[in-house]
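Much of the work behind modern protein science is quiet bookkeeping, done one molecule at a time. The protein below has been through that process, and both of its lines are reproduced in full.


***
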Amino acid sequence: MILRTLLLAGIAATVPLAAMAAGGTRSLDSVGPSVVIGLSDTALCVMETQRDNISEAYYWCDRAIRRAESSIDERSVAYMHRGVVHLKTHDIQAAIKDLDKSIELTPHYGDAHFNKANALFALGRYQDAVDCYGQALANNPTTPDLAHYNRGKAYERLGKGDLAKTDMQQAMALMPEDSPLVARLGKRP
């Protein structure tokens, strides 16, 4: 349901917690500030962003960014999710700034490119959004179906119907059967 809400808002903010938990967890016995049941600040940032708990997400993302022991990858994930928090609160310029920082830290982070493209789309910068969705797709985002779908919507806004149709068909081919967007796109081929 949370993912569904995010998808309908045009924002995909999914990052596997297991990928971050492996190297970034601390137990309650560890030296320094303790974290909730051994989750890293970054994992809490992701979790609260997915729950749409804006103030908690911002707190944990900001903390992960500021902490010296956070790895570059953890900081990149935190910047990306804080960017999503900014998108959810309609602070698009702050979102782009954080998403740019995420991309600077890890240039091949497909989800950061995807969410930056969403921010550019929100600003009406459709050609920039198309380019950024292309970068997302080149870097394996978590939701390639949505990257194709959203790029198709940007192409529509640019009056490029053939390119929009191609992306929508690709989105449909990649989309899970239970996706809320399947009904919008029609039956599968």
